[in-house]
Amino acid sequence: MRNASFNICMRHIRVLSLVVMGTLLLTACAAYGKAVDTKQLNDAVIARMIAAYGGKDVINRTKSVYAEGEIVAHMKKDMGTYKRWSERDRKLRVETAYSRSSETRILSGVRGWRSDGGPLEEVTGHQFLAMVYQYKQLDLPYGMLNGKYRISDSWKDRMDGRDVKVFIIEDSEGPPMRFCVDLKTYLIIRVEGAFDMNGRTAILGVTFSDFRKVDGYPFPYRVQNFGSGMAIGETQIRKYVVNPEMKGSLFRP
Fold first, then answer.
1. Which parts of the chain register pLDDT below 70?
2. Which residue from 52, 194, 198, 215 has the least number of CB within 10 angstroms?
3. pLDDT digits (tens, 9 = 90+) for 59-102
4. Helix, strand or coil for residue 161?
């Protein structure tokens, strides 16, 4: 009698074990399927984004860009001229000349310099990472095309009445970045990054609009910068020049 009861108990345990194992397997398969599905959806959006920027050939051949226009600094309550030179890989020079002040920023590889009207001085920490972040946001389609970033999260959202796909991306340097792709045009309309500034976290971001094509590449003619939810400045680009010859001295102090 005891042997019969023991055998029945063991059968129940084996059945229960099979049920538990099956449930775990189904859960794992569902999670794997969801991950695969998410990757496929992300890949599809990124592919359409690459196409919206002119495709692989146009993005890869757009190696240097000069831009100029007018800038309004909300916090400074001033306005002036804006000039920007950028070149792969990781070269950036930005000059702003307001009515009462001026600023120059230079990024060259792993070094950066900044001036508020006086001599250029080398910067490190969040000031250097802010320059790197600006370079990356300007050349983001190239970075995504050539696998420079890893997507750590993504979701659909609404922004200013538009459907967008939000991506969180990371690389080996600096804070993660978040960017939004307009699901109608498949252009990048917003980029954000979090920075540690003297123990406080600041969100620096930019929105892009008024896109027009130059040599097959769509550039934003309106650029708005913000920090931790507050408007910092707005730039109206007047002219873009694609692949101009750039002297090395532009990116040296």
1. 1-37, 197
2. 198
3. 999 999 999 999 999 888 899 999 999 999 899 999 999 999 99
4. coil
Taking CA atoms, 89 is separated from 1, 67, 81, 130, 142, in Å, by 81, 17, 25, 16, 11
**Residue 116, token pair as written in the block:** 């508020």
- As a whole number of angstroms, the distance between CA 182 and CA 206 comes to 14
DSSP code of residue 99: S
Integer Cα distance of 99 and 102 in angstroms: 8
User: Rounded to 5 degrees, what angle do the CA atoms 169, 137, 196 make?
Assistant: 70
d(CA 38, CA 42): 6
- Which residue carries 């620096």 as its tokens? 204
User: Where on the phi/psi map is residue 110: left (φ > 0), alpha (ψ -120 to 50), or beta?
Assistant: alpha
- Where does residue 13 rank: exposed (0-12), middle (13-18), buried (19+ CB within 10 A)? exposed
Q: What would the two tokens of residue 151 be? A: 């997507």
Cβ(169)–Cβ(154) under 8 Å?
Answer: no
SS3 of residue 46 by DSSP: helix
- Dist CA 48 CA 71 (whole Å): 31
Instruction: Give the model's pLDDT for residue 37.
Output: 62
**Could you tell me which residues are beta bridge partners of residue 95?**
83, 104
Q: Quickly list DSSP for 114-148.
A: EESSS--EEE-HHHHHHHHHHHHHHTHHHHHHTT-
Contact 103, 115 (CB under 8 A): yes
